[in-house]
Amino acid sequence: MSERDFDVLWAFSTKKQTAYGTKLADVDLTLATPFKGPDAVVRTPTIETDAEQAGRGQEFQQSQEIERWDVRLARSFDMTSLVAAWVSAFGLGQVTTSQPDAGGNPTVYDHQCRFMTNTKELPVTSIVENPISGTTLKSLYRDMAIADFEMSGEINQRLQLAANLIGSGYREASTKTIPSVTAGSFLRMSGVTFQVGPTGSEVDVSSRIKGFTLGVNNNPMEDDGYFPGSGLYRGRLEYGQRREVELAFQLLVADAVERDHLEANDYLKAIITSVGAVISTTYKHTLTITVPRLAYRALPIGFEDGMALYSIEANVFHDSSSGYPLDITVRNNTAALLN
User: Which of 69, 258, 300, 317 is surrounded by the fewest CB atoms within 10 Å?
Assistant: First the structure.
């Protein structure tokens, strides 16, 4: 019997592994959330054959051996506050969780995510995936790290989130029961406020925004994870020599302000906020992206639906006064991340 992409199920966790190579227990894999597209885990071996070896008496291959394993997962979502927080925490590596009103609203949590500075090894987690409705192929994959991710928004759409994960290559059969889908609160472009301008004088340009894209790339050192003693699987995964942040957005042309910022090489600040449904009383599911220091590098003018449009590309810089190049803060009802 054939299976459909809608039958793919997975379970994941807010928890990180205590160490690379140490899987999470089934009891920790409590979350499940819908995703877009049929992408499933791709596990690939590096294989060596005897095709180039002489002295065998004939030219045809006779044997092969597996030298190492690799695991990749590309996953895309209609963004909820849960997956926004999960991807931001594991993708940036450092999270500070607080409660704005622990006494009056104990189910509301703020997760401030920034690039980690205390170690180069990316935080990793474990997942279980069942690509068919039976249990034959259900597998646990450990040491899953977020290599890169992208958040984006377009008019009249839910915000989108896409992430690429890399594992150690390790797989084992799983009997884990996939949990029911975890309730999530969607974040939409209609709930976005977009501010950009000199620090302290940011201008609300929400009525002119047509879309935005924020990209983060850890540029992990994939091959360095295999070393003497690691065997068939990666033994570590560290971020690369340079982590990168990219910001681009499309803005209806109203005046020459953006052009003047480019020509003056002005340093600006951007704050992108998306507000969703109520968590408790006045507290709502919220995503806040803060880029404290950027400068425009390209500002071509095009046309969409007959309207002039700036397609702005920005370089993102580390801000010495705030101490970070990017802050993603998510308010939701998830108690802990990277715990």
Answer: 300
Where do the domains of the chain lie? 7-45+69-224+242-332
Q: Find the helix or strand (DSSP H, E) in which 126 lies.
A: strand 125-130
Burial of 92: CB neighbours in 10 Å, binned 0-12, 13-18, 19+:
buried
Distance CA 2, CA 69 (A): 27
Rounded CA separation 166/75 (Å): 11
Distance CA 292, CA 46 (A): 43
**H-type alpha helices, the chain:** 81-92, 257-263
Q: Is the four-CA dihedral 163, 168, 171, 176 of positive or negative sign?
A: negative
Rounded to two decimals, the pTM is 0.95
Question: For residue 274, which of 158, 103, 109, 100 has the smallest C-alpha distance?
Answer: 158
Number of helices and strands (H, E) in the chain? 2, 18
Find residue 78's DSSP bridge partners: 160
d(CA 252, CA 267): 21
Q: What is the overall mean pLDDT for the chain?
A: 94
Look up tokens 């409705």; give the residue: 133
- For 277-310, write each residue's pLDDT tens digit: 999 999 999 999 999 999 999 999 998 888 899 9
Region of 92 please: left (phi>0), alpha (psi -120 to 50) or beta: alpha
Please list the residues that pair with 188 across neighbouring strands. 158
327, 113 Cβ separation under 8 angstroms: yes
For 74, the 3-state DSSP assignment is: strand
Separation CA 268–CA 292 (nearest Å):
7
**Quick check: helix, strand or coil at residue 285?**
strand
Burial code (b: 16+ CB inside 10 Å, e: under 16) for 114-152 equals: bbbeeeebbbbbbbbbbbbeeeeebbbbbbbbbbbbbbb
Q: For 163-209, how does the pLDDT look when each residue is reduced to its tens digit (9 = 90+)?
A: 999 999 999 999 999 999 998 999 999 999 999 999 999 999 999 99
